[in-house]
Design brief:
Helix content: 25-40%
CATH topology of the largest domain: TIM Barrel
Oligomer: single chain
Structural class: alpha/beta
CATH architecture of the largest domain: Alpha-Beta Barrel
Bound molecules: iron/sulfur cluster
Number of strands: 17
Order of helices and strands: EEEEEEEEHHEHEHEHHEHEHEEEE
Length: about 325
């Protein structure tokens, strides 16, 4: 447990959390929507500081990040809790549950986690992932500060539902973001995720403007956000507001948590891939077996520059500066 940041006192012992756009008003002894930030005696605490649900070295492609040091490994850390309530959550066991209070868990210090990350010489850094890292902001920031000092890269996989001030702080320490853009209607965000779309769009614009590396993931859920009209609007917005070189991952959904619809038909994903590729240079398909949407092609000359097979990656057509060997077009900033 550690003192939380970004909150204010409304009246005696009643607090308002300003970390994310829910602005939870939290009475003494109660937690916010994320279940991990608690008012104890008029002070807000992060209950899960130092508590991890899982750690491991993952291919960077698993985050997914395809244009950030492709083929490398990254030490990945998850904790508990989430500020959203997605009915189709693919990680609900850790996002919608809190650690079992009955069994004390081993506390992990930021220093010990960074030390583990440094043990693997081919590891490029630390990814904050698996559950929503926004809700363990203080723990993430402490780890990221040490990791940065040791020369490691910091990566965050997030739903992007965060307020501007803490986001600005994060941008100071996080090198690459993968943001989930879950759909493109307020109705979907309200009824399927218990949050709002507009703040996520703001987050995407701010990250893009900051120059930090950004990739987007859209989980296509059968019958919920597989509407061609909404998807077209989303892709046009990404291309117009963030640029046609923005990387978009379309991910296949499988029944989970409170959603039992059949897995996304591969045909729909391939159709969406073709449609998105008209407005965006880099569109990938994930969580499925398909020959479509795996490799990276040069948007200028069409040459295949990176080959992928699941999480195996071969950089075949790029020089050391991330330029296409055939036409010299700059494709990757981080290689
Ligand atoms: S971070 Fe948690 S407590 Fe704070 S406003 Fe968001 S959901 Fe509420």
């Amino acid at each position: 447990m550690k003192a939380a940041r970004y909150y204010e006192e409304l009246q005696r012992n009643t607090l308002k959390c300003n970390l994310c756009p829910h602005y939870c008003v939290i009475g003494d002894g109660k937690q916010g929507i994320c279940r991990v930030r608690k008012n104890t005696g008029g002070e807000l605490f992060l209950e899960t500081y130092g508590v991890v649900s899982s750690v491991g070295f993952d291919p960077i492609e698993k985050k997914p990040l395809y244009h950030f040091y492709p083929g490398s490994e990254i030490f990945s850390i998850g904790s508990f809790g989430c500020n959203l309530r997605c009915k189709f959550c693919q990680n609900w066991q850790i996002s919608q549950e809190t650690p079992n209070g009955g069994s004390p868990r081993r506390q992990n210090s930021p220093e010990s986690l960074v030390a583990t990350a440094l043990e693997n010489k081919s590891n490029i850094g630390i990814a904050f992932t698996y559950n929503e890292p926004i809700v363990w902001f203080e723990f993430m920031m402490d780890i990221a500060a040490i990791s940065r000092k040791k020369g490691l890269k910091n990566v965050m996989v997030t739903n992007g539902f965060i307020n501007r001030e803490p986001l600005a702080e994060l941008i100071g320490l996080i090198d690459a973001f993968n943001v989930d853009l879950k759909a493109f209607t307020e109705d979907f965000y309200k009824h399927q995720t218990f949050s709002k779309l507009e703040p996520v769009k703001e987050t995407l614009k701010i990250i893009r403007k900051s120059g930090r590396h950004l990739e987007i993931t859209n989980l296509v859920v059968t019958g919920l956000n597989d509407n061609m009209k909404d998807f077209t609007e989303m892709v046009k917005w990404i291309s117009g507001e963030l640029g046609r070189d923005t990387v978009l991952h379309l991910s296949r959904y499988f029944p989970n948590y409170k959603t039992s619809a059949v897995p996304t038909p591969v045909g729909i994903l391939e159709e969406f891939h073709a449609l998105a590729s008209q407005s965006l240079d880099f569109v990938y398909l994930g969580n499925l077996t398909s020959t479509t949407g795996q490799d990276t092609k040069c948007p200028q000359c069409g040459a295949k520059v990176i080959n992928r097979s699941r999480y195996d990656t071969w950089i075949s057509g790029l020089d050391k500066d991330g330029k296409c060997k055939k036409c010299n077009h700059k494709i990757l900033e981080y290689i």
